[in-house]
Amino acid sequence: MPLSHLADWYVPAELQALYTESGLTYAQIGAKLGVSVRTVGNYLTGETRPKLAMAAKFAEVCGATEKRAGFLIHVISQMDHGRIVSDLDERNIFIIERAEASYGDFWKWEPWYIPGPLQIELYHMEALAGQDEKPMEQWQRKLRRQIMILRRNPRPAMRFLIGLNALQPLVQWEWGQDQFTKLLEFNRLPNCEIRILEGLHRGVEHSFDIYQPAEMTKAGPAFVYVEALDQSRHIEEAIKIDMYHDRVNKMWSFGTRFGGCLNDWVH
């Protein structure tokens, strides 16, 4: 099975992000790792791939959380298997975070929940209570993703397709209107559109994202991110990406443009 091109893109992209966030220089990182400035540069450009132990140390030096560093190591360990599959213990969306920061076009289909970057803190902490062992850490990541998307210039083309079932519970929460207002704010952004899908449609069983480079130079290859009950995976085969793209386009055509007030969606 060929090398995963997505993993090949993600590793240097994540190392570059860690370097930028750390505020350290190449020389400072190199001194802590015991390597030359040139080697550090090669890691960040993808010219060379750090071994597992070196990547772990790089992440530690740059201040990465244990979970973030662990996922980086997880991806590197899978790079020769041709795809990235994560089970329940290793599931993570750090690749999605990098894609949201780099790709020019993405679709998100979410049947049951408000998509992560569109959530407010109370939705995460109360509506999703009990789903994360460290809810505040997870919320900080979602907030970071949201801020990053809002700061992007030029802004990517973003399409969010949300199941009606995700909206209806908002009426029972005191902060439900605040969450609805956050969706309205995103829907008004340039290059962003939200639609709501009601009823049964083929392909709605699980959430999935589709990412396309759209001529963004820092983006990696096109891919689909899928979450199931027992694992998450990233699909790179063109024929499968086209299948998901065709399906979301059909679902999108049945979706209703988002807007109005919360009570309009409750029936």
Automatic annotation (TrEMBL):
Cleaved signal peptide residues: none
Listed InterPro entries: Cro/C1-type_HTH (IPR001387), DUF5753 (IPR043917), Lambda_DNA-bd_dom_sf (IPR010982)
Pfam family, one: HTH_31
Domain HTH cro/C1-type span(s) in chain numbering: 15-69
Protein name from the UniProt record: HTH cro/C1-type domain-containing protein
Species in which this protein is naturally found: Glycomyces rutgersensis
